[in-house]
Amino acid sequence: MSELSPGKPPKNLLIVVAAALVDRDGRLLVQQRPEGLAMAGLWEFPGGKLEAGETPEQALIRELAEELAIDVDHACLAPACFASDTLGEKHLLLLLYVCRKWRGTPVAQHASALRWVRPVDLHGLAMPPADKPLIGLLEALV
Q1: Nearest CA to 20 among 104, 59, 87, 76?
Q2: 130: burial class by Cβ within 10 Å (0-12, 13-18, 19+)?
Q3: Which domain holds residue 66?
Q4: Per-residue pLDDT tens over the stretch 45-87
């Protein structure tokens, strides 16, 4: 366990933001992690790491543009839930937002594949451990 200092996150804290993109049919977009990355082949919600100086929303807007070539307005991101999990030497804090409106058509820029699925169908996909607890919450939200 790392030492905590007032006003500072622990040095091993990894903050990741992700989006549950919801289409008009109530399906969610997931992407498959490519070969060569940790957890290759697993399905995940699009997003990525928070960089220095970014708010979670700024990071997610940047990540969605980089990963899916879509534009999202800050006002279209609704905080939904979070997950907390140990990831090797780091501690992962995953912040999940729901987004129902964006510009452009999602295209896999870095992922092996994209798939639109019903929330209940997420249970049948191989997903990272931090994503699994979010499925039930998304079923209730979507």
Answers
A1: 76
A2: buried
A3: 25-141
A4: 999 999 999 999 999 999 999 999 999 999 999 999 999 998 8
